[in-house]
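seq:
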Amino acid sequence: MPDQPKSQIFKILAYSLAGVLLLLSWLWNIPPFWQSLDENIFRFFNQFVDLQYPVWIKILAILNTRLFDFISAGFMCLLLLWSVHISPRQDRWRYWISVSVLMVGTFLLISALCEISITCHRPSPTATFGDSNRLRNLIDIRHRDISNQSFPSDHGVILMIFVAFLFRFARRQVAAVGVLLTILLSAPRIMVGAHWFTDVYVGALSTTLLTLPWLLMSPLADWWIRKIRQHLDRWLDKKQISTQ
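struct:
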């Protein structure tokens, strides 16, 4: 990036360094801060996975169903629509469609990189502790409460990529709501024991810190959006001509 200002390069390197240090702090775990935090958070929420709390366990199961994943995606789409609505751009629909295409492509690429490069086969808390309360033993609603490979949280990676794109392209108030949404939507997986706390706030966060700044804080993002926009314009123009 020869034309990139030095200050911007330093920011990219700073975010990447933060991601490296965060990941190393978890890998080395000296002192065992992360392990203790993970276990304490899991034990706190797991005590409420009990028939003494029938309403809570039903809510918790629903929040971890595939259906709720689609509802979560709907919340994310609403934030994108809000961004379109308050955008001052004349071409806001085509612009935000291009941003969304780039965001989905980034989801797929980073997910593939995680599958290839991260070899830490870490089971979830419910798969680690034999004495843990399992929600599936208490309720018939089909949900996810266990994982044999929980680090990093793929759910958390998607949410953090989403909020990073909001900070880069949307208004600050939209991005702030995106942060709140990320916290709320990642919590059910932690509360049910399908993920450790650090699967999200170390694994997913360090992944995004190491990768996204090189895209979003460099000319690459704008270059890709221009390319996507050009293809979109040509496709829409052809559709318009064919309908006339």
